[in-house]
C-alpha cells in the first residue's frame, strides 16, 4: 500500500466526537447576539449555541457537556465583576 493511501485510510478511520449539548441558562436572542456569546468567547469556551424557543425571541444557552462547569464559572465571574448590569441570563 502507498503511503498516500495509508494516510487517507488513517484519516477516514478518525470519526469526529459527537457533541452532547446541555441547556444551561435561558436568555433572549438580543442578549445572546450582542453580549453573552462574546462573554463565552472571551472565557475560552469553544462549543456553544443558542437554542430558540418555539415562540418569541427567547431561548436557551446550550454548551458542550465537558465545558458546562467552566462556562458557569465564566458567567458567574462576569456577573460579580459587573454587578450594575442587567441580568442577561437566568435559570
Mean pLDDT: 89
Number of helical runs?
A: 3
Number of strands: 3
In the sheet with the most strands, the strands line up as 1-3-2
The level of helicity is 40-55%
Any overview of this molecule?
With 91 residues, the chain is an alpha+beta fold. It has three helices and three strands. The protein has helices at residues 3-13, 29-42, 68-81, and strands at 21-28, 48-52, 58-64. The chain has a three-stranded antiparallel sheet with strand order 1-3-2. It starts with a helix and ends in a 10-residue tail after the last helix.
Quick recap:
The protein contains 3 helices and 3 strands. It has helices at residues 3-13, 29-42, 68-81, and strands at residues 21-28, 48-52, 58-64.
Question: Helices, strands, pairings?
Answer:
Blueprint: H1 3-13, E1 21-28, H2 29-42, E2 48-52, E3 58-64, H3 68-81
Antiparallel strand pairs: 1-3, 2-3
Descriptors:
3 helices, alpha+beta, 91 residues, 3 strands, three-stranded antiparallel beta sheet, globular
